[in-house]
Amino acid sequence: MRNKTANLLKTVRNMHNGVTLMCLSIFLSVIFAIFSMIVPLFIGKAVDSMAEESEAVLQLKVDFSILGKFIGLSVIAVVLACIVQYILNRTNIVISNTIIRKLRDDAYAKVSRLPMSYIDKHTSGKLQSLIISDIDTAGTGIQMFLNQFFVSVMSIVITLVIMFRLQWKITLFVLLFTPISFLTSFFIAKRTYNSFKKQADIRSKQTQFINEVANNFIIQKKYSIEDNTFDDFEKINNAYRNTSVKSTFFSSITNPSTRFINALIYAGVALIGARIATETGSAFTVGALTSILAYCSQFMKPFNELSGVLTELTDAFACMDRIYSFLALDESVELEESEQILLENIINELEFRNVTFGYDKKPVLKNVSFKVSNGQKLAIVGPTGCGKTTIINLLMRYYEPQEGEILINGINIKKIPVDVLRSKISMVSQDTWFKNGSISENLKYGNVDLSDEKMNDFAKLSGAKSFIRQLPDKFDYVINNNSSDFSEGQRQLLSITRTMCSDPEFIILDEATASVDIYSEKKIQKSFDELLKGRTSIVIAHRLSTIVDADVIVVLVDGEVKQSGSHAELYKENGYYSKLYNTYINE
Amino acid sequence: MKFLSGYFKQYKKQAIIGPLFKLLEAVFELIVPVLVAKIIDKGIAAKDFALIWKYVGLMGAFALIGYICALTAQYFASYVANNIGCTIRSDLFKHILNLKMADYDKIGSAGILTSLTDDVNQISNGINLFLRLLLRSPFIVVGACVAAFLIDFKASLIFVCVVIILISIIYFNMRITLPLFKKSRTALGNLSGIAENGLSGVKTIRSFNKSADDFDTFSKQNSNLYNFQLKASSISAMLNPITYVVINLCICLLIYYGAIEVDDGVLSKGLVVALYSYMSQILIEVVKLCNLVVNVSRSLACLNKVEKLFAYGDNSSSDVETLTDNDLKNDICVDFKNVSFTYEKNSDATINDISFEIKRGEIIGIIGKTGSGKSTIARLLSGIYDTYNGSIKYFGKEIKNLSEKEKADSIGFVTQKTNIITGSIRDNIIINRSGVNDTDINSASRISCLEEVITKDAEGLNKMLYATGAGTGLSGGQKQRLGIARVLAGNPDLLILDDSTSALDANTESSFLRNLTEMSKDITTVIISQRIRTVKNCNKILYIDDGVILGFDTHENLYNKLEDYRNFCILQGQEMNV
């Protein structure tokens, strides 16, 4: 708990004006509690002004000067309380929203500094829910805490003080009830929280179930398993039915229970108060009784709110815990060596030297070595799962090799700043991703200053122009990465154009075109050829023409280089390559 | 509404008991201020101690009875609301499961998910609030006013004014803040979208050195959201102080007015105190009432959506025919006669007046470009769509007249994409079918070449797969093999492969195709592909373009006779030396 509070304090301290705003919030809470709690006292005094004459006289006379005074004071207190409460709420809104904004910025910025291994292991949905929902829950919790915690505590204190001054015997009676009140509302809040948690568990299970069925609806039809699916669903649904009846019930008994305990206190106070008031010579007036009754009827409210805040806070703290442990994650060490080499020359030679790498204990690449020189094309071939894509990950420095080194012009790429490295090398991968934005924004992604004419030329060269031309807004058409506006083939063409526009020296390309139809494939192949023209490249090859005219062919099987050399050399060797080649031409 | 009343009928008793007890509780609550007034006016003034005891005792008793009433009411409200909610959900789920594919396409999976979860929950929530507050809140508000009227006519005017002022304040506040909150929710949605976009493209973003830019986009929208949120919250934060000030100023007014009446001897002091108590009660209930209105209207909108879903699908079942074992020995497996078909959405290819025949045990290839209609034929063959014109006979029976179950048992349809369900590989092969045993699984995984994937992994068939998230752990080709194994495990009479070997490497594909030819001669196979290499060894190839059959013959014959087909082959590097 201390640790968690420390997290919260850290956030506040990091915030601009955070400490000041926090103090202001606490100060205003106290003021509001005083003003609002004093009103029943004034009202009681006003009621007493109606009994200035002797009680024996049947007709009461009202002392209007006293009445006026206390009504006036009440009005002032009420108006001030109203204003203070608004400023208080406003301050808390600013505090909590500023914290939310700050945490979101921090968390999102953190993503770009995390090692790729973390990103690959966590779905983007998980990170998204941390950045959006968790932070939201934490922020709401903080706001609720600020709005109610100090006010509630102060209200209880002030109520007790005033009541003591009015009639200490009655107050003792009320005090006796305090622990009971608090325990009751705390117990109910806890019970509610627990049963809600259980309900939430079942609900998320149910949502997941429905989601899978809804997304795989065709399976239901294809295998006609509707009845079995429905039986499974009913099991979850009935469990949900039972828990939700309970949890809704528990959550709904807070108010009646509060009212009940309040009513008991109320009755007790009325009894004791009336008894004291009837004692001869008692200074305890009807007005004082009215005030005390008014205080009693509100007495449970702060307790309720406190227990509500406390349960809400457990949730907020849990989220905050996740956020802070995310923010504290180890970041990727982009530059291990102290010396930085900016690599001003063009890439003359790129070499993998005895590189071994695995994502976990199992190595994916074993002692891999190859070399490609300026203007050459190196093709990597091999069966699926042989470690081809991993080469991209290492070259782009998403991951670091465990053994061996990758050299550019003889320099270990660890010594080259990542942004310099990545500005020289471009990758075209199988899964195409686009920023949600216009086509031209995306095409100029790697080269913002590119002129529209140049972009147009590149689009023509790659063949993307042919379908961009048909779009309603042409180059201004807005892409949504998730939508299926574009076919896989069109996305590939856009991705190739994007890389052309950034005009890299060196290209690493994954040319798999499995999900594309035969005509698009032809277009894409043409486009690839245009892209690779005159550039040094490593190509993860899937088609014959690429392989045959490559300067170097590396055959990768199970993470090991089995063969390497030109087509002619390898073909003679009568190994994996010649087998592969023969399957290709015999198709 | 009519729809809902049907459900209420099932829980009629509870639905009546709930609000009734709630009403009782409110009655007891309204009596308390009168009792206090009596204590002040009669008890204290006359120092009648027995009387005070009597009234205090009554207060305690009423409190207890009221509490019991309240608990009873809350329980029944929760009982009715959640039971109706779950029953609706169950009915809706069943209804959706039995929808036809075409209806499913119209609704979409996202629509189904929100209806079954959020919408139904909202309905249940609305019923709960309705049962709890429907009678209570208005009753207390009106009751307090009436009590005030009985005590003093003029004082009751103040009450009526307060109620009107409070309701209009809350109404206007909602009018202003609801659109603002809607805006900030949209802003949150946008932020979420930006985060989703950026988080899913980390690799590409880093490769272009665009991390800083990407952060700026996020941060800008984040500030945007901050501003919206601040504006909306600031306005809604006015609600509490304003209602507070209104009700308390009216209390001051009431006391002042009461004092004059007391001075004139019209009112007693106790009654002024009673009026004061009623005023405090009103505030709480008016706020609740407004919440009720908002929540119930939201629930009604959800109810509307759910009702619309129930309206889908007229399950006018045609004459159901059954397949006998004798039918399955028929020599003609599939017979298309003048079949035409257009999709509802009209986006995909349609086919036009197509006729052909497939014999039992044949392996047939269907080939054509994207959008030529070959997948449409596959879907019609599988019996998923039944709104075609013409006749499709499956072992002599019109396919649309066969029951879903019968079609599913006899026809195996493999698509390009394999829908992974969360569960082990074994679960993914069985997918909840009752009749699939280990022998089926083994032979299916052998034929589909899934075996080598399974044996490679230490966990074998027990390896877990996940439907969502990145961690399926299977490559595209491996997923396709799983999809094929899944269908084969059901021992179909007709096997349809719709582009389902597209992600297999050449070696695996050819060994799978070889395995196919070695299967039982009773199984008819249709292979749909756009690659010549996949279908060229089939018994016959159906070459289709623009929804029309251009040729139906062996590869050699088509190549020699049909120039279009020949060009198609050459394009794919499949020239033949004749």
Describe what this molecule looks like in 3D:
The complex is a heterodimer of chains A (587) and B (578). Chain A is α/β, with parallel strands linked by helices and 587 residues long. Chain A has 20 helices and twelve strands. A six-stranded mixed beta sheet of chain A has the order 6-9-10-3-11-12, with helices on both faces. A four-stranded antiparallel beta sheet of chain A has the order 2-1-4-5, with helices on one face. In chain A, strand 1 and strand 2 form a beta hairpin. The longest helix of chain A has 50 residues. The model of chain A has no long low-confidence stretch (mean pLDDT 81). Chain B is α/β, with parallel strands linked by helices and 578 residues long. The mean pLDDT of chain B is 83. The chains are: A alpha/beta (587), B alpha/beta (578). At the A-B interface, helix 2, helix 3, helix 4, helix 5 and helix 6 of A face helix 2, helix 3, helix 5, helix 7 and helix 8 of B.
The major beta sheet of chain A can be summarized as:
6 strands, mixed
Give the number of DSSP strands of chain B. 12
Q: Which structural class is indicated by helix and strand composition of chain A?
A: alpha/beta
Strand order of the largest sheet of chain A: 6-9-10-3-11-12
Distance between the termini of chain B: 74 Å
Shape of chain A: elongated
**Annotation, overall tally of beta strands of chain A:** 12
Look at the structure and give the mean pLDDT of chain B. 83
Q: Could you tell me the radius of gyration of chain A in angstroms? A: 37 Å
C-alpha geometry of chain B: elongated
Name the structural class of chain B.
alpha/beta
The number of helices of chain A is 20
For the termini of chain A, the CA-CA separation is: 68 Å
Greatest interface (CB-CB under 8 A), with counts per chain: A-B, 142 and 154 residues
